[in-house]
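tool_call: predict_structure(chain=1)
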Amino acid sequence: SVPINDLRSHYSAVILAYGAASDRELGLDGENTIQGVLPSRRIVEYYNGSLDMDLTPIEFNPEEHEHIGIVGNGNIACDIARMFLKDPSLFKSSDTPANVMSALQRSKVNTVQMIGRRGITQAAFSTKEIRELASLDNLKTYMVLPEVQDSMTEASRTETLDRAIGRRTKFLTDSFDLIEHGEHYEDVMSRKNEKKLILRWLRSPTALHSEGNRISGATLQKMSLEGDAKLQRAVPSTEADEDTLRDYKCDVLVK
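tool_result:
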């Protein structure tokens, strides 16, 4: 190790950069044993070329896995979604590692869902990040209408008076198609030849489902917001939810 004072004596500035030292836990049974439940850090290290972070076919098989779920809606979630949804031919001019490029060129992924505990005005991604993601070629973008409506509490409407929040919310409501109900959701999910990004709001995974120790989906608890503007928190809702919106199916779940 190098003492900080030694660095200070040789350099005019010292920047201490910290990354996540551990993976986020969902607190759900099986999340560390069910195949296909992957920490976001592992995915990021994989596509950034970390030498010891190649994904095994058990974790992600590009020729079989079509549906990726991401728990969270920050800039990292957007970055991961972009990697899976971007036209693979566009990676040729980038510094993407050869093994990653090969996997993405064979990828059958057609759907990515980003699952947020809170509502549309509390999204953690920036307008720039979500705009770049939504503008990918041949990508359809969706939100679920009841989730958007439930997001817009009086406190949430007050939050949109903040310029950045208001601009981001307007972009989402203007640019994303709305899934009106569970039957419509099933119809959208059945479109295998359509690449799509679906933003989910007020949903939190409460149980993982598997087939042969392979992730097959999760139960999504409907949440509701309480509290004042910019201090709202998500709590479990007592309202009934449609089965198709609660019983979530995926091939890979990124936490």
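agent: The domain at 26-254 is CATH 3.50.50.60 (FAD/NAD(P)-binding domain). Proceeding to next step.
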